[in-house]
Amino acid sequence: MADKISFEPPRGMRDFYPEDMAWRNRVFDAFRAAGEAAGFRQYDACVVESYELLARKAGEEVGEQIYHFLDKSERHLALRAEMTPTLARMVAQRQKELSFPLKWTTIAQCFRYERMTKGRKREHYQWNLDIIGEDSVLAEVEVIGAACDALRRMGLSSSDFKVHVSSRKFLGELLSQSGIAAERHAQVFLALDKRGKMPDAEIAAMLKDGGLSDAEIEATFAIMETKDYSACPELVELFRLAEIAGFADCLEFDISVIRGLSYYTGVVFECFDAKGEFRAIFGGGRYDNLLTTIGGEPATAVGLGFGDVVVTELLKARLGEDAAAARKGIAVGFMFPEQRDAAVAFAAKLRKDGESVDLSLRSQKPKKFFSHAAESGAAEAAFLGPDDVARGTVRVKDLSTREEKEVPLAP
Q: Which of 158, 212, 330, 361 makes an SS bond possible with 249, Cβ 3.0 to 4.6 Å?
């Protein structure tokens, strides 16, 4: 006998049952609304990329985490692990035709083969916001502001989350002032980005392996205690503009935010829940060199990646597991086959008026119909029996308050 097929999805992948889709829709609706409110234009792309494009970021951990394969023509392809390389390819392809600065957004399904932990799957959706071709820190302000707006639209407030902001350029200047050569900064960034994930003793060992002296290692850890960003003009301006834009209460300076990806060049940021119970909600920063690494013309850029996994866990924890299941629409049922046509006509009338209608497909007893209507998430229910059709009216019940109202069946 053949082995029984597992009904579970592949490890790290997800199925979305209707109750899961309610949460996903809540998150995605907020993404789209916030992006549109901030003037970002939607785009999309193929989920399969050339391996060469994704492997351009050689030396990073993500290079080992790509799902890649040879197709039937021996082309080396991969599932995208993030959207930024794809965006860079698309912009580079039409760079001479596009009008800059660009403000683009997408919700992309991404795949990354890695060790699974709380808040991290091997498949997830990521909302991307990118501004390309703008030097000023107002680009960072627009991107971060839109992300904060999305969180508020989901039902959270600034007391639920904080965006930790820093600058790799500023950190590099502090390292240089401490005598650490510029060519060692990338190694230092990679090591420091692992703080919180491993003990400082192991971070120190990594720095020592990278060629830093004991004095330089001590100076590096001292820099990580920096609380003042007044010597960094771009951060001063960012916080000033955030105050004007109305979301400065969502921000805090945090020199320890580095972002491991080597293409970040300036301001970097990560958002965390205020209680520190979850992984980062979103992150991003300025990446001014990525287009040139894939053969495009130089262009400044700021981007943000906002996954759906962590924020959904946070929303359930703060708002309740059932918060996304808001009742809406009306369920319409009928007692006998003789009332089916009247039920179809009534449903058509309601739909024409803009209502969402879940029409029963077969005759049912009242108890079974109302039980199914309650489980379906409908806000109201109307059940047609012989007397209702004869009378030309039907009682519509509010499934939350149990109140009823009489409405005509015909237009």
A: 158
